[in-house]
Structure to design on (323 residues):
């Protein structure tokens, strides 16, 4: 889609010799345009829901909420949070917020925080077999381990689930996360968890001092400050104990090229840093019009800005433009 958008933008600009936009500038404008479209999903979802509740929208093909929800669902991910150790390297109840350096995705908005309450096993794998966890000193059957339980490699901070029970000391895993013997592991029950409630930093002290409202394993809470999530009670520690479901930021689009053809860069999506737009195909016209607005400002051509804004409103008005 990104090449189609770029061709549209260049076609409009070149029609009246308004100018040329370089690949680097196009990539910058594309990132901003995609973020605009992405953020509109949330406000439009709210307005579409209000329309539905007031019976101003229909069902089936007239369902205004469904396509927006499907677009947003694409950006929902679920990851275990990485603990922040103290100065001695010990586990604490502090966890890093989702980010590129920890979970691989930057968090736009956290939707849900889950704390696993039943730690069935904690031990060390005694030998290495592909896609297996082997611990000769425990009995997984008597400890109640079942398929679906969450297995965490505390040494490498990787997690997977139990696929099958091979024997009393061998588990078949969905993913191969144990590549060396001596790795510490923890197994959590997949069916026993509690959803943590977010509270303000000013409120948590009062909650902890009360015998009735203090956070517990069954009713945990968390606060956020400076990229750190603090879980309560303080017994919630270690990688795998906390899982966050959140909306991630869209990946920055990048139109890549490898050579010049007749003085023009040739599109090449085989480049390792190539990244297409992540919004649905039906928003291609929005992206083109928003990028044209940035281009018009860049080349100081008001007509380009006015055309793009008018075309964006004319083609398919959003809720925010309707009201």
């Amino acid at each position: 889609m990104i090449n189609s958008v770029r061709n549209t933008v260049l076609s409009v600009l070149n029609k009246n010799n308004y100018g040329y936009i370089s690949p680097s500038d196009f990539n910058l404008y594309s990132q901003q345009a995609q973020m605009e479209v992405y953020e509109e999903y949330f406000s439009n979802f709210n307005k579409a829901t209000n329309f539905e509740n007031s019976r101003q929208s229909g069902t089936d093909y007239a369902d205004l909420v469904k396509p927006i929800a499907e677009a947003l669902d694409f950006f929902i991910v679920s990851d275990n949070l990485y603990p922040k150790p103290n100065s001695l390297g010990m586990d604490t109840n502090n966890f890093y917020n989702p980010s590129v350096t920890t979970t691989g995705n930057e968090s736009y908005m956290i939707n849900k925080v889950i704390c696993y309450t039943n730690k069935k096993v904690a031990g060390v794998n005694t030998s290495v077999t592909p896609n297996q966890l082997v611990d000769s000193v425990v009995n997984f059957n008597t400890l109640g381990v079942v398929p679906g339980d969450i297995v965490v490699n505390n040494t490498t901070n990787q997690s997977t689930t139990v696929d099958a029970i091979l024997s009393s000391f061998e588990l078949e895993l969905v993913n191969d996360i144990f590549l060396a013997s001596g790795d510490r592991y923890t197994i959590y029950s997949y069916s026993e968890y509690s959803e943590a409630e977010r509270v303000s930093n000013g409120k948590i002290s009062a909650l902890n001092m009360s015998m009735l409202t203090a956070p517990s394993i069954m009713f945990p809470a968390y606060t956020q400050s400076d990229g750190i999530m603090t879980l309560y009670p303080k017994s919630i520690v270690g990688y795998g104990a906390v899982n966050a479901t959140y909306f991630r930021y869209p990946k920055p689009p990048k139109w890549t090229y490898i050579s010049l053809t007749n003085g023009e860069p040739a599109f090449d999506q085989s480049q390792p840093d190539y990244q297409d737009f992540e919004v649905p195909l039906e928003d291609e016209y929005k992206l083109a019009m928003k990028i044209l607005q940035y281009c018009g400002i860049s080349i100081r051509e008001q007509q380009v800005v006015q055309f793009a804004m008018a075309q964006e409103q004319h083609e398919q008005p959003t809720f925010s433009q309707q009201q």
The first strand starts at residue 76 and ends at 80. Confidence is low (pLDDT under 50) at residues 317-323. The chain has seven helices and 16 strands. The two ends are 30 Å apart (CA to CA).
